[in-house]
Records
---
Amino acid sequence: MPEITLVGTGGMMPLKYRWLTSCYIEHNGSAVLIDCGEGTQIALAQAECKISRINVLLITHTHADHVSGLPGFLLSLGNSERTEPLDIYVPYGKTKIIKNLMCICDRLDFDVRIHELSTKDESSFIAETIDPMLEVRSLPLRHSCDCLGYSLTFRRKQVFLPDEAKRLDVPLEKWKILHRGESVLLDDGRTITPDMVTQNSRRPIKITYVTDTLPFAAISEFAYGSQLFICEGMYGDRDKKKSMNHKGHMLMQDACRLAQNAQAEQLWLTHYSPAEFYPENYSKELKKLFENIVISKDGQKTEIKD
């Protein structure tokens, strides 16, 4: 089951008590990292996240607080004796920026493969280096530059029914083949299909991550049904709303409303302003808008089991 760590929760610049917002999602020994601001490799170490397990890096946008840590991250990854390729996903047209950031990383022992995602329409791909059943979707957001939100859906194998397999006299060595969705031909000429020995009773696990955007209805649709919705809450002071509208950001209250409309099971706030020293002060007000909210801190962790 995926384990999620909110590595950092800050926006704009790192502080001595708050790293820049980044998210580490580990599953079956491999991990996805979302964003890579200044000092991310240090924040990963402090949060006890294994940098060597990261196979996919999702970049929301190319503002400095989300990408300026890339060179240090790549060099640290290289020092972990990595040889497997790293896949980096970026908004369309931003490959040049990533390559420019990499200009001081000329001795990596692994390939960096850069993929561009549409900034006009939703996109999706299968993150096979993490799990062949992991679908990653991206949503164009509304910020001062091209920016993407990400949703990760871990689809799970159907439940295998060993009693049915025994009843049908399926040899034990054929069970794994059926469980991964392939039919088998038995020695007596019978074909056993997966649906004969499985049942679909395991719902997917969905995690959605959205930051640096104005709030709009499509975000709730994108995040609909998420077990965990991680969303920007730059300020809790409602007087900041006009300023947030101008800069392409949202308030904590906006995040609550989006989570409520998305019927998310839990909301984690992130991307606090450096001037937002005590986001927990808004907890009582925010719980009235969305009860299952977490005023996240660096290193926030959870494992989604259902």
---
Amino acid sequence: MAIPLLFAISFICFMFINLIPSNPAEVALRVQQMPIITEEAIAKMEELLGLNKPFFARYVDWLMGCLHGDFGISYVNPARTVAGEILRSLPATLQLAGTSFVIVIVLSIPIGFFCAVYKDGWFDRIMRGAVFVTTAMPSYWVGLLLMWLLGVKAGLLPTNGNGTWKHLILPAFTVGLSYISTYIRLIRNNMLENMKQDYVLYANVRGLPQKSIWLKHVLKNSMHTCIVAMGMSIPQLISGTIVVENVFSWPGLGTLCISSIFNRDYPVIQTYVLLIGVLFVVFNLLFDILQTVSDPRLRKED
């Protein structure tokens, strides 16, 4: 089902961009700051961009170009290709999303583990309160708060741009904060459910060390259900950087997308939406397979 789903995403993406009431040819001329826009100039630009063809012919041409890595040219700068613009901004976004994912894994697993082990203790109560608060906070507000507290007041970290590892800390933590809260709650609840299972009772009866039961049995079985969720957080982290990148002036895909929206650079917006859709489908498929491989109970045998 992944292949027809990818075609459906591409068609919806192309259709919605073409439903925008503005004429892309006229927008391209305005972006290029042509002083006088005439009907002849618009017709010439439509022919140059292939907009004078029927809708489905344009879709097929665009789709075949995408399959070959050709996503068109930028309206803002016709000398640059959309693929070149995406590749120029992609490393910064991957760096930010990758660092955020590491922070999510490093913090959520041990905190969720200790919340389950010390259920209703002071540590569990504090973490549950923090999870409740941080889940409700929008990322742009968290970013501005961290900038004011750690950047402006304390002067510990830079508040915008990139270049050093210090520039990465605030935006990466801002992106990952809501996911940390989600996975703390998910891991804690899964572990508490697994602690009620019979295999935990049998392990206690056999006299296995409590730490071994928690780590090798309860935590391991609890993580099976988190694999797909964590895998799906990777494309969510990449797409979720769009706001944070603009707050921290991080030169990634999010900043490129927002500038393209303001400039009405339709090919870049179209490619960005298509890229995010493809990432969601591909990662969902990969981690469904990994979950089936790691958990024998999900395998279907003839």
